[in-house]
Amino acid sequence: MLFRSNVGSRWSYKLISLVAVVVCGLAVGWLFRLLVSARGMAPLGVLCFVASVQVRHWFDPTIGFGLLLPSVTFKFVIVFCLTLKILHLANPRSRYLLGFLSGVVWALAVMQYEAVFFVYPIILATVLSFRDVEISRRIGTLMWTFIPTISAALLAMMFRSRVTPSEGYRVNLEMFPFLAT
Q1: Per-residue pLDDT, 34
Q2: What is the distance between the alpha carbons of residues 31 and 42, in angstroms, rounded to a whole number?
Q3: What single string gives the DSSP state of each residue in 67-108?
């Protein structure tokens, strides 16, 4: 909301949103290039991304929420790409630098939107599936993103345990009202 209120006009906000989505699409193309190791697959990745972007007239999650979804998507894809790059770098200094960078970007993504927790298993499964890389390097690579994930999850649980949720978020485990309907 702060972002939207500081942008002067609707068309400039939508233009910034469009640029953010295009940048996300390019990042997805880079991710496909890293995953498949074929130059011709990057356009396919961009096409898959474009097919998944939703634009609606009445409620548009892509341009709504102050660029929340493009921002989180970009951070996730960049962390995914950096993690894949770390696996194949020979220079330890470069690995540590990219690992630190991916950890910082991942921490920013998790702090921005907690739903990012649910896409972490994609990175986890992909990194663990690289059989040509020794297991110690795979686990070391995952630690750069695992530590911020666990830290943010513990902080979220701690803060949420001290707040009483509204009625809309409470789960009623009584079966009789449910069975009566």
Answers
A1: 83
A2: 8
A3: THHHHHHHHHHHHHHHHHHHHH---HHHHHHHHHHHHHHHHH
